[in-house]
Specification:
Layout: E1 2-14, E2 27-29, E3 43-45, E4 48-54, E5 60-65, E6 69-81, E7 93-102, E8 129-137, E9 143-150, H1 153-170, H2 181-202, H3 214-242, H4 254-280, H5 293-313, H6 315-339
Antiparallel strand pairs: 1-6, 2-5, 3-7, 4-6, 5-6, 7-9, 8-9
Helix pairs in contact: 1-2, 1-3, 2-3, 3-6, 4-5
Transmembrane segments: 152-173, 185-202, 217-240, 319-338
Keywords: Cell membrane, Ion channel, Ion transport, Membrane, Receptor, Signal, Transmembrane, Transmembrane helix, Transport
Domain Neurotransmitter-gated ion-channel ligand-binding: 1-142
Length: 340
């Protein structure tokens, strides 16, 4: 990451060659055309990429006191290189360091130290970061640390919300007939391709990294949930066709099976009422209407058995309807608790 900013670099040092004894005036202001005749510390930054000084329009100010104390302020446009650590992207914080030292002199001859006054940073709006604050390190190499926190609202909309919706949509297959393998597979494959596209699109504006970012982890786990839903679809279909007898074809329409069930149920109830009425008439060894209860029972048992077989096919889907959302909620709670 490159950080470009305007800095007022203010330096104070003593040069006894420029001191004087006078009671009339104690300080003089140096004009711009005299600056080249006065020695100025050659300050530099170790991670500097580009630096431009402004001497026009009040960009430079130098005052010399009678005791040899020199105050020098210069406006500079500085571009520094800030290494980024993206393990927690997009909930990451980035730091930029301003390390001051001399370019031509050794530390034994010229050494810088930071003043006690607080570093003043004017409020500025950055599109991707919040400015958190500054800190100082008054060690051998004076360092000012600038801390920035990323604005991750954009990534919530572009990465996390779409990934979560794709996972939720993949669970719709649990409510479909397990023998409807075509539609269920089409749904799951579409969700997988969408998440793969989302993973590639989220890294377009970032450098190539050898480690996994927080956003990558979320998308990969979401991909895993969709892939597991695909495997569940294939397993549910296998269990569904395994329960059907060999060579038997049954209708796959649940409304048709339910309608047949009620028709057989009403027929059996009607036959039972007729038999009771015949017994009340005490007409033994006579049959006004011959029925075959065995065949009816067989039909009833066959229809009801078929209905119970359909219900038994859905045990895996019912279990996944509870298990998948529970595991995904646990993952989200753990994920956001760790990274936030």
């Amino acid at each position: 990451m490159e950080l470009e900013m305007l800095l007022y670099i203010r330096q104070i040092w003593f040069d006894h060659r420029l001191s004087w004894n006078s009671t009339e005036f104690h300080r003089i202001k140096v004009r711009e055309h005299f600056l080249d005749k006065i020695w100025i510390p050659d300050i530099r930054m170790k991670n500097l990429k580009d630096m431009k000084h402004f001497r026009e329009f009040g960009g430079v100010n130098m005052n010399i006191n009678s005791n040899g104390r020199i105050y020098y302020s210069q406006l500079s446009l500085v571009k520094i290189d800030c290494p980024m650590i993206l393990h927690k992207f997009p909930m990451d914080e980035q730091t930029c360091y301003l390390k001051f030292s001399s370019y031509a002199y050794a530390k034994s001859l010229l050494q810088f130290s930071l003043a006690e006054r607080k570093t003043v940073v004017k409020p500025v709006h950055l599109p991707q970061f919040y400015f958190v604050g500054t800190s100082k390190d008054k060690g051998i190499t004076p360092t000012i640390t600038l801390t920035f926190q990323r604005r991750f609202g954009y990534y919530i909309i572009q990465i996390y919300v779409p990934s979560s919706f794709l996972v939720l949509l993949s669970w719709l297959s649990f409510f479909m007939d397990p023998t409807d393998i075509g539609n269920r597979l089409a749904l799951e494959v579409t969700m997988i391709l969408s998440i793969v596209f989302l993973l590639g699109n989220s890294n377009n504006s970032l450098p190539y990294l050898s480690y996994t970012k927080a956003s990558d982890l979320f998308i990969i786990v979401s991909f895993g949930f969709v892939f597991m839903a695909l495997l569940q679809t294939m397993l549910a279909y296998h269990l569904a066709i395994k329960k059907e007898p060999f060579g038997k074809t049954t209708t796959s329409d649940p409304l048709t099976r339910l309608k047949n069930y009620f028709v057989v149920f009403k027929r059996k109830k009607k036959e039972k009422a007729e038999r009771k009425r015949e017994q009340n008439e005490n007409e033994e060894n006579k049959c006004t209407r011959c029925v075959e209860p065995v065949d009816t029972d067989v039909v009833f048992e066959r229809a009801s058995g078929e209905q119970s077989g359909v219900v038994s096919r859905f045990w895996l889907d019912k279990m996944c309807i509870v298990a998948f959302p529970t595991l995904y909620i646990i993952f989200n709670v753990s994920y956001w608790s760790y990274y936030m």
